[in-house]
Design brief:
heterodimer, A: mainly beta, ATP Synthase, domain 1, B: five-stranded mixed beta sheet, elongated
Chain lengths: 84, 296
């Protein structure tokens, strides 16, 4: 699925991935392929993305939102720093 | 006229060095403008997406925006945010913003000010200086004067948060922002917008009714979403003003360099005239002297 991370100072990530784990306000959850459409606000924490090639990308966030629609994941976040 | 010749030479020198400065400032502004514009472009997808999200939620919520930030109250206490630059030499840019804001105060909020219920939050030194000097009855807040030195979202959102807090605890009934809207490098115009309360636009856009799951729930989400949208639009005011400032300075310095060029042209002509005159005079003196010798 297509994943993009947007912040007020620009797009920091765009690419294919197989899994996104986010710290939702209602609890941490993971979005996999063909997830139902969802909109959720996010708490401070770490977003973990598993990319198409199997590697893992972590992004620390302060707050934000996730929107999933038809295998497109949009993460609108304010960040701390991108951890490797 | 040797004295005149020297004078003209000095003036040429001084005009040239002024022109060097204005040219350099133009280049610097052009570079900064490009960066400022980039910041606006970078922010746009984020802002657009947030708005779409809100439209989606409202479309699914079958209702209006019921938020603390949407409450229209009787206007008793007013807050005006004036966003100007901290540096001058950018034409009428700052003056225009200041003029707009003070006209608004005089037309609309004179009474409020007399009662001491007007707060002016100044971002950027120029506006701060002006309002401190001319609006003694208003409460001037200068906490964020130097915001432009560090224009990061994290910093800006703090100021936005303060305003939003002020609105929700009824310190202000309305918050308006005067800023320099950026159109392109040559055109910026001052604008006044209502920041709070939020005027909920009836979303007439195509309601794509995807059946979203909402977490925590629609209202809880809106409580999160709205502040983010507000902060983003506040951020945009600042980015716009920032870009406008550099655009205005670029234009002003361009004009100044052109003017310098013109003055130089005139000076060079009068310099050459003076030089010619001096030579002619000297020649005729020599010729006259030789003739006198011959005659003797």
């Amino acid at each position: 699925m297509q994943i993009q991370i947007l912040t007020p100072s620009g797009k920091i990530f765009e690419g294919e991935g197989t899994s996104v784990r986010v710290p939702g306000t209602g609890g941490q959850f993971e979005v996999l392929e063909n997830h139902a459409a969802i909109v959720s606000s996010l708490d401070p924490g770490t977003i973990r993305i598993i990319l198409a090639d199997g590697s893992i990308k972590n992004v620390e966030i302060q707050s934000g939102f996730i929107e999933v629609l038809k295998n497109e994941v949009a993460l609108l976040v304010t960040i701390a720093e991108a951890a490797a | 006229m040797a004295a005149n010749l020297k004078e003209v030479r000095e003036r040429i020198k001084s005009v040239i060095s002024t022109q060097q400065i204005t040219k350099a400032m133009k280049m610097v502004s052009a570079a900064k403008l490009r960066r400022a514009q980039q910041a606006i472009v970078d922010m746009r997808p984020y802002a657009d997406r947030l708005n779409t999200m809100m439209v989606n939620i409202l479309a699914n919520a079958d209702g209006d925006l019921n938020s603390a930030f949407g409450l229209q109250r009787d206007v008793q206490k007013v807050c005006i945010v004036v966003v100007t630059s901290s540096k001058g030499l950018c034409g009428a840019f700052n003056t225009n913003v200041i003029k707009l804001a003070s006209a608004r105060i005089q037309e609309q909020y004179q009474e409020v000010m007399e009662k001491g219920n007007l707060t002016v939050v100044c971002i950027g030194k120029k506006g701060n200086d002006y309002f401190r000097r001319h609006f003694k009855k208003a409460r001037i807040v200068s906490d964020h004067v130097n915001m432009f030195q560090d224009l990061r979202y994290e910093k800006v959102q703090e100021a936005a948060q303060e305003l939003m807090d002020g609105f929700s605890d009824q310190t202000y009934d309305i918050v308006e922002v005067a800023y320099g809207r950026f159109k392109n490098a040559a055109t910026q115009y001052p604008e006044m917008e209502t920041f709070l309360p939020v005027i909920s636009e009836k979303s007439k856009e195509t309601r794509q009714r995807a059946d979203y799951l909402f977490e925590p729930d629609k209202n809880g989400l809106l409580d999160h979403l709205l502040p983010s949208i507000l902060k983003t639009s506040f951020y945009k005011y600042l980015l716009d003003t920032h870009a406008s400032e550099h655009g205005a300075r670029m234009t002003a310095m361009e004009k100044a360099s052109e003017n310098a060029e013109e003055i130089l042209k005139e000076l060079k002509i009068s310099y050459n005239k003076a030089r010619q005159e001096a030579i002619t005079k000297e020649l005729s003196e020599i010729v006259g002297g030789a003739a006198a010798l011959e005659g003797a």
